[in-house]
Amino acid sequence: MWPFICQFIEKLFRETIEPAVRGANNHLSTFSFTKIDIGHQPLRINGVKVYTENVDKRQIILDLQISFVGNCEIDLEIKRYFCRAGVKSIQIHGTMRVILEPLIGDMPLIGALSLFFLRKPLLEINWTGLTNLLDVPGLNGLSDTIILDIISNYLVLPNRITVPLVSEVQIAQLRFPIPKGVLRIHFIEAQDLEGKDTYLKGIVKGKSDPYGIIRVGNQIFQSKVIKENLNPKWNEVYEALVYEHPGQELEIELFDEDPDKDDFLGSLMIDLIEVEKERLLDEWFTLDEVSKGKLHLKLEWLTLMPTAENLDKVLTSIRADKDQANDGLSSALLILYLDSARNLPVSHILLDTLLS
User: Domain C2 spans what residues (predicted)?
Assistant: First the structure.
């Protein structure tokens, strides 16, 4: 299948990614791919997990442990600035979810295929001419790391690639599904964190300036920094949309803010299936990958209701909790799907150009 997958990837680059890059910035309006060769080394699938519980009977959910290490040749240029750059190798490792839905009673039995990563994959890109690219106006504030984060997040839920296999499938409903729920994260406090700041060339151990980074899919929140405190209290609230479960997790990393490189203070991974089951979790969690430290979280699973009959009850509850969140807590979710436009006015600038 690899040669045909490569054909699909090339089409994706030219028809989706290239127009998106051109529209992202005026300086990139002449951006184009001049060569796309993904290479002969195919993607490896190291493991497959199939879900049999909490799954709609008209769909099949697969999680693929994928690994791709390939020499490729992707060349791009920005004609306006005579800039050329490219990619000569890519590595990507992560868990890709594949959803086959809807299942239908005629061949090919599957109406459409959806692909995405549940969380940010490990991505390494070997660039050629990256310095030229970063010299382009509007891009000079970027770096290799920031570009990798942008690309990685583009692959992560709620972004998805949906491929219809039959013509009558409602593609919009598959590409932009209604969220399964909302996760309200009360990021409260931590205890007994490691002291990373040192004085007198490391002889004296100091404190830390801790902050947290919270991820659900490609939704990222960052807490405020608490200066010189190993038992910080944040008392912040975040709300994240959950599009897929089972499989999605809440990821939290704590860091000590430093002028050069921030030090790692621990991490936490929580399966959202547990939160949905309990509806409310208020616990101290032991931090992973460090010798000590605990994090106090309150997690609420909020179910989406199709009608507004309980709105007054929700608003009353939110008013009682209004001091807990700077921006207020949400009471409802508005989902807007922009389908198409017709009979738009013709640009006068274009007319002037044509007539001159």
Answer: 165-285
